Amino acid sequence: MIQSIVDGILTGAIISLGAIGLTMVMHMLRFANFAYAELLAIGAYAALVFDALFAGLLPVLDTAFKPLTLTAALALATIIAMVITGASAVVIDWLVFKRIRAKADALSMVFASFGVALIVRNVLTLIFGHKAQLYSNDIAFAVVLSRDPLLLIKPDQVFVLVAALALMGLFHLVLTRTTFGYALRAVAENPALAQVSGVRLSAMITAVWMIGGGLSAAAGVFYALTNHLSPVLGHNFLLPVFAATIVGGIGSVHGAVLGGFIVGIASGLALMVLPSGYAPAMPFVIILAVLLVRPHGLFGEDHS
Amino acid sequence: MIGMISYLAFFATMAGILAIVVLGLNLQWGYTGLFNGGVVAFFGAGAYGTMLLGGRPELGQFGGYEWPFVFALAGGVVLAALIAWIVGMLTLRLRHDYLAIATFGVAVAFESVTRNAEWLTGGAKGLRGFPRPLEAAIGNNFAYGLFFLGMVLVVLGAVYWGLQRLVHSPYGRALRAIREDETAARSLGKNPARLRLQSFVIGSAIMGVAGGLYVAFYAFVSPQDLAPILTFQVWAMLIVGGAGNNRGAVLGAFLIWGAWTASGFALSKFAPQAMQLYTGSIQYILIGTVIVGMLLWRPQGLLPERIVTRFTKTAAKAGPTSKGAI
Question: By the 8 A CB rule, do A204 and A183 touch?
Fold first, then answer.
């Protein structure tokens, strides 16, 4: 029970990071972006490439911070991966979404995002292969926190939770304490009014993609660090991050964070009674439950 | 020669079954503007439903009631419609994204049930042993292939005819009206939520019909038959053919299925040995590129939607009379 909750919180932190950007993109551009979760995979693989590069160029960096398996090379690589993933989100928007936005309806955007997801996922497969990979071949030993009830935790998991919460806290400060944060919220609230007030919409859209891409990349690396890395990473997170945005209410950043934890913990608990094969379907059950009880989510507004 | 013909019949049967799915999607997306991200689940519901009711009984396995094919098929269709009704009830009142996410979720949930609920779906190994309709009476394999193709084409024709009637009726105009401008349609007394739900359920039921035919054709169904790529293939077919045009939908189904089969054949024949594991990925990229490319450069498809002119003719005829009255 405790173990399921703790594991749920860890997965929840990763889902939350992924959901923050998605909820902003969905609210601002008004379409469900099914290519969004692929950013997690792009980020995780970008970090893999730069990790190997740094470790090769400067072997000094390739020692792990004990008791973590995280190395300085990977930490640096993660930061670069966040920038690269943000940039690729912007490039994808320029290449595809922006053009379709200009002439077609939201439905075409949703279709296009599925197409983009399919392309990204399979290009990653072609480059990196089907098989699962790890950042580090060191064995990460779990620490036994308690024997009855049994509670095991890996140092990497603690690091991931702290880092994820730090990133979310940082973004919260940006959103609530800076002019840029105000502008971002203004655009999300009412794009036309924000533009009249002198906020450049196109710059804000770029910023949202950069932030969303960066946070997703971190989420992807965090997942890969505590589990493993494969081309279906993004696909596996697609439904959980959507569930988190719906639970929180589309457009609500705080809702998305809370939603991520709820989805993570609920899925963890559900697997105590259900076989693990049903894990992928859990977010769907949560989505249905929310739609039934509170269709606009915890913090969503009723726009209808 | 016979080999060639039977291969062509096999190809056309599969393309015909997929064309039925595309027609169902066309009613939802093309005519009503509804997103369906879980085409494979409704197709699969038809397939598994038909298999459970019409299949042969097996030890420890639910279903296998050996119902006559037509009744088993009807059961599968009802199952597909029922799932569509539940999802539609929950999501169609909300922003269109919710339907997109929920239907995608249905597909994921459906796949995990087919893979895990062994007592019901046979798990990963699937269900086998479906008594194919009239197989014993026809006997000869080659003749049966042709007979089955004929049956698929008859169903395809019937679905096409029915949908043409439907979309060119006042009901079809109401669907397009809510697609174009919901507020205007509502002000004319149409109930968008109800029309959407009906269109979604009918479209999904049509996908269920195709699923039932698929099971009868292969006499076997497993989660591998219902891979998520099927949803993408069906979309590509509709986008290429032309959303909002039933002839385009059928054309797109045959074109994309042809391209898919040909590219699979070419890759397995000419791709280097080391790449053989990855030919699937290359095909997926092609499908994704077709979808994105069409949306960017020819969103109306090869056969664009045609707005019926009969209405304007009547309006033109009415014109002078009203002028005369003044």
Answer: yes
Is the model's pLDDT at A146 over the cut of 80?
no
β-partners of residue A71 are A64
Is pLDDT of B316 > 70? no
**A107 chain-B contacts, CB cut-off 8 A:** 29, 33, 35, 96
On whether any CB of chain B is under 8 Å from the CB of A101, the answer is no
- List CB contacts (< 8 A) between B274 and chain A: none
Closest CA to B80 of B24, B125, B26: B24
Tokens of A237: 């997170």
What is the CATH class of A2-293?
mainly alpha
Q: How far apart are CA A129 and CA A290, in angstroms?
A: 37
Please, are residues B81 and B206 in contact by the beta-carbon 8 Å criterion? no
**CA–CA separation, B113 and B109 (whole Å):** 6
Summarised one tens digit per residue, pLDDT across range A60-80 is: 777 878 778 888 899 999 999
Residue written as token pair 């060119």: B168
CA angle A238, B40, B15 (to 5 degrees): 135
Under 8 Å CB-to-CB from B186, ≥6 apart: which residues?
B178, B192
Q: ipTM score here? A: 0.89
Domain ranges of chain B: 2-227
Number of Cβ within a 10 Å radius of residue B157:
12
Q: What is the pLDDT of residues B147-161, one digit of tens each?
A: 999 999 999 999 999
- CB-nearest to B285 from A104, A114, A123 is A123
Closest CA in chain B for residue A128: B278
Between A141-145, B252-256, B320-324, the lowest mean confidence (pLDDT) is in B320-324
DSSP B165-227: HHHTSHHHHHHHHHHH-HHHHHHTT--HHHHHHHHHHHHHHHHHHHHHHHHHHHSEE-GGGG-
Nearest to B295 by CA among A192, A104, A134, A292: A104
Across the interface, whether the CB atoms of A126 and B29 are under 8 A apart is answered no
Give the span between the Cα atoms of A206 and A184, in whole angstroms. Answer: 11
Residue type, B307: I
Provide, as residue numbers in chain B, all residues whose Cβ is less than 8 Å from the Cβ of A304: 93-95
Which uninterrupted H or E stretch holds A54? helix A38-57
Q: Where are the domains of chain A?
A: 2-293
- Contact A244/B at CB under 8 A: no
What pLDDT does A36 receive? 94
Q: Which residues contact A61 (CB under 8 A, 6 or more apart)?
A: A54, A55, A71, A72, A73, A76
A89/A22 Cα distance (integer angstroms): 12
Q: Which of A279, A281, A287 sits opposite B101 (nearest CB)?
A: A287
The radius of gyration of chain B's CA atoms, rounded to the nearest angstrom, is: 21
